[in-house]
Write a structure and sequence with these properties.
Elements (H helix, E strand, L loop, with lengths): L7 E2 L13 H13 L5 H25 L6 E5 L2 E5 L5 E6 L5 E5 L4 E6 L2 E7 H4 L3 H10 L4 E4 L3 H4 L2 H10 L15 H18 L6 E2 L21 E2 L2 E5 L7 H25 L4 H27 L4 E5 L2 E5 L9 E4 L5 E10 L6 E11 L5 E6 L5 H10 L4 E2 L18 H5 L4 E5 L2 E5 L5 E5 L6 E7 L2 E7 L5 E6 H4 L3 H10 L4 E2 L1 H19 L52 E4 L3 H26 L6 H24 L3 E6 L2 E6 L4 E6 L5 E5 L7 E5 L5 E5 L5 H10 L20
Parallel strand pairs: 5-8, 9-10, 15-18, 22-25
Antiparallel strand pairs: 1-2, 2-3, 3-4, 5-6, 6-7, 11-12, 12-13, 13-14, 15-16, 16-17, 19-20, 20-21, 22-23, 23-24, 26-27, 27-28, 28-29, 30-31, 31-32
Length: 728
Amino acid sequence: MRTVEHELVGLAGSGGRWRPVAAGPFTVLAVALALLPIRPVWLWAALIGAVAAVPWLLGAVPDARRRRPRPYWRLSAAGLERIGRGGLVMVSYERSRIDGLAITTGDGVLTVFHRFGRTAVGGMTAMGLEPLAVFVTARRLGIPMHVLDGEATDLLDPALDEALRASGLEDDIPGGGPLPRDHAVEKRLLDQEAALLAAAYEPPAEPTTEPSTAPSTGAAGGRAGRGRGRRAGEQRLATPEPLPSRRRIMALGALTALLGAVMIVRIALDGTSEFGARLAAGCWALAAIAGVLTARRRLLRAAQVRWTITAERLLVRARPGRRREVQDLRAGDVAAVVVGPGLRLDPVSGEPRRADLAALAFGHRLELVARLPAHGLDGFQLAHALDDHGYRVITPGARAPRRPDYGLEGLPEIFAQVPGGRLVVADGGLGWADAAGDVVLKMPEDRIGGIELLTIGGHAWVRLYDSDGDEFFAAPLSALRISRTDLRDSARRAGLPVNDAEYDAYMSAAFHSAVSTLAAPEPDRAPAALPAPATGPDGGVQDVPAPPPGGPGGQDVMFAVSAPLGPVTAPGTLLDATRRSRIGTYAMSVLLCEAVALLGAVWLGPDLGGFNATASWSMPAGLVIGLLGYWLYDRNRSQLRVSSAGLAVVTRRGKVEWELTRDRVGGVGIDESTDRMPRLVVWAPSGRVLRQITFPPDLDELRRACERYGVPWGPPDADRPAPPPPEL
């Protein structure tokens, strides 16, 4: 995509893709035709095949006649316009009538300010526009840009304006508007614009054989030095190959369609006088069409993104088999590349969607030269590969640190009513003492089922459990005015059940590091083994005299120390799938077997004594097979083990499916992705997904286990490394 100066064209898909039209209605029509007793049978089979092929023929007609692109948005000197098919202007906001543009952070809607009020144009994602590109282009055109914290519906509510004006609250709102501006987002956009300006006026670099070692500066990232050298050669980056491969997907789709066609022909040759035969033909037609559509959808989503980075040009290809759609950018035309979250075209619908990683190439006149797809790539590798070859890289500012959402709802009201109060261990239980040391609230020992000390967000917390094992209180120790060491030692002296897994793990690691020097033998000296106890004639153990000091021959005694514990052997918590998910899977397995038994009775019933006779034994058999089959799988199901040494998935029979040590785990939590269902994954410290947990454990138990053993909960935060547990 290339644009002229001071013109921004929104992301939009091309209209030339061959896709089926109205596949759902024609599928229903094909199944309905299969159920009708049409004579002769060759006409019946031909009608089914023709109706199934109509959506593909309709999808090919517009592509063969004319390739018309989809409607898109354009911001230029003429204003904000929506261009339809054939280049016709469908919606137009003239430049002379625009007083300003605003982006609301709550819903991402672009709002136009004019002399008669405000108009919400639409969401930035649906319009195919990026905030940075709109911000830079609008300012180049002389249009004031604002970033507002809120939603567009708040801006468009005139009753809110009247209420603010009548009550005098308008003076208390910054900026004179009903919503305050989001200064952080606007400052980040201004920083990126400043970096683009610096890159636009920087002279182009000359290729060199060795990478430059100039220091990196700049608030938004990239290189600020002039004339930085480019690394010679090329570097290729690509997303992982899809599983299954594209050839297997095409083969499965073709085999499904062929199998459905062959079975319909066989049924036509055997005769379609019985309703069961026609119902089986309808099921085969539905399976064949659904298999082809599913294979096509999976084939579109299985595209790889490939980058070829050289000092002279950038080659990017996102759709396999279409070499004419390879984006080729000369290095001289690119002033800077902005690497960060962006937009991409949905491979199935062709509509713009959010992407975790995208690249925007800006020219030397601050025009958007190209949108380069990068979803699925590693942002770290992409940014450094571009930087090593001399391209100016700009990244968004540091993210705000993620802080756990924990409140103090469980604190009793008396805590706030007693000035200078603090938590104490007194008379075998816990109590709340005032400034004079008198205990005003006491919890006896019989009500305390457990005391758990852990770290949340770098602060020491305490959780209290009752005798039934239920949590009834949780608060930071700073709010209770007691240190972690004092509470742990005082509670253990009083005989209260205290669990401080982080402290125990720290002491174990310190012990192993202290004795590791004793366990390392010298190169030409083997460690001395302790003699086994001798057994007497009567089977008793005889006393063995201790060896002389210094060992035999005057050598030092070497003590063998066991190897450090791993994720499987270290003490930890074993998490299983929830009972609800197991029962649901049992039910799904039984329903699937019952559906197969019912279809088999319909299809094979005429040959086995009729539908009723066949269903009388196939339905109970399906029930037994479904229950027994899933029981065989369920008795060896996978379980997640969380420990201070890392994570592991083991089966009930003890087989280790995979394990990750603690230094490789950057976070555990839910991956809210836009192109797939939410899933439970394990991230690396760099942000890459290492493993996917296929069974859903209880999330509350998993979060508590991660906090208990020091495993980060949630996506990794590379900008703010986690501090060590306090007071250890």
